[in-house]
Specification:
Helix content is 40%, strand content 18%. Helix 1 crosses helix 4 and helix 5 runs antiparallel to helix 6. The N and C termini lie far apart (44 Å). Bound molecules: guanosine-5'-monophosphate (5GP) and manganese (II) ion (MN).
Length: 336
């Protein structure tokens, strides 16, 4: 078989530009579009799916946006769904016409919706995780993009779709959070942000619910979590690790907006390059969030079966907290 320009031997577009062009064609012809975010969706995943969903719906397609779990999206991200496109995973067709997977580093990150990758008539992946092996018929996969919304923004330009306030708000939410408040954003991402602001994004209205709005009752539990935090300056090859545990009882009392902020406080510890938060999601199961300044935590996470980015990664591990921390330390020593 001879590969056509921009296509690899398997027929999958082989450059980002070719993939963006192929994706625009898919979206231009699809009458029914299903967009999915990863489990425990964040602003980049849901913002990407909703921005594209809004555009596709306005073009007359039947559109739904979903994710496998939990049952409800984070409260702070609900305002992004300006057209009411979000549906429960049970409402996703058994064999979608076009499946668009946003910010999903591996098929397993789709949870119970991963089977739709097999049944969909065609599928489109849009992601920026370096650990992504690549899946789906068309793959916009670019680890140099600071966020998946950056790739969606490129796709919308290719489609000639106007970026108005509702679309811009979805894109901005993903951009500002995945770049940790533009700390990891390059010049092009800042130009994109400028365009989104010109489209009318209300920055405070987007950001305050996501990271700056906690009930007073959270402070007491947060104090307990920070009080029990531990510092190991010898970990991660001497770069240092600060860690904290959020027990299931505390998880049950608070929203994801509260719990996910813990790692952002821990990562400010001067003595540690790496911060890790163990969030209890089962009797012996922990969802681990890692952040770092220089150590490649993506490599450590992938070693343990998780994934993510060099400065922000995660993994789900079984055991008691000491066992989980020991496994983290071993993986970080190798990466440090
Ligand atoms: P967060 O700590 O914000 O939940 O996640 C940080 C990064 O790690 C994200 O890019 C996310 O995709 C990835 N990540 C978090 N938890 C897991 C996990 O359990 N498995 C995998 N494969 N990736 C994860
Ligand atoms: Mn992302």
């Amino acid at each position: 078989m001879t590969a056509t320009a921009g296509r690899g031997p398997t027929g999958v577009p082989s450059t980002t530009a070719a993939a963006v062009a192929a994706a625009a064609e898919l979206l231009a012809t699809a009458r029914d579009v299903t967009l999915v975010a990863h489990v425990q969706p964040d602003a980049d995943s849901l913002g990407s799916a909703l921005a594209l969903g809004i555009v596709a719906a306005r073009r007359g397609a039947t559109v739904r946006v979903s994710f496998a779990s939990p049952a409800q999206p984070p409260e702070s991200l609900r305002p992004l769904d300006a057209l009411g496109l979000l549906v429960a995973p049970e409402a996703v067709p058994a064999a979608p016409e076009l499946l668009v997977m946003c910010d999903t580093a591996a098929p397993e990150r789709l949870g119970s919706l991963a089977d739709r990758l097999v049944t969909a008539r065609s599928s489109l992946l849009i992601d920026h995780h370096a650990s992504n092996p690549g899946f789906g018929d068309v793959r916009i996969l670019d680890p140099s993009a600071e966020a998946t919304v950056v790739l969606v923004h490129r796709l919308l330009a290719e489609m000639g779709a106007p970026v108005d306030r509702p679309v811009a708000t979805c894109l901005y939410a993903g951009l500002v959070t995945d770049t940790v408040g533009f700390r990891t954003a390059g010049p092009a991402a800042h130009r994109m942000a400028a365009e989104l602001l010109e489209a009318g994004v209300d920055v405070e209205a987007v950001l305050r619910p996501i990271s700056d709005d906690h009930p007073f009752t959270w402070f007491d539990d947060l104090a307990g979590i920070l009080h029990a935090a531990t510092l190991d300056v010898t970990a991660a090859g001497g770069h240092g690790l600060v860690s904290a545990v959020v027990p299931a009882a505390v998880m049950g009392r608070h929203r994801v907006e509260e719990v996910d902020g813990v790692v952002d406080l821990l990562r400010t510890a001067s003595e540690a390059d790496v911060a890790a938060v163990l969030k209890q999601v089962g009797p012996r199961r922990w969802s681990v969030s890692m952040r770092s300044r220089t150590v490649d935590v993506a490599t450590a996470a992938v070693t343990l079966g998780g994934g993510g980015h060099p400065r922000a990664a995660g993994v789900t591990l079984d055991g008691d907290p000491d066992e989980v921390l020991a496994r983290l330390r071993a993986a970080l020593t190798a990466a440090g």
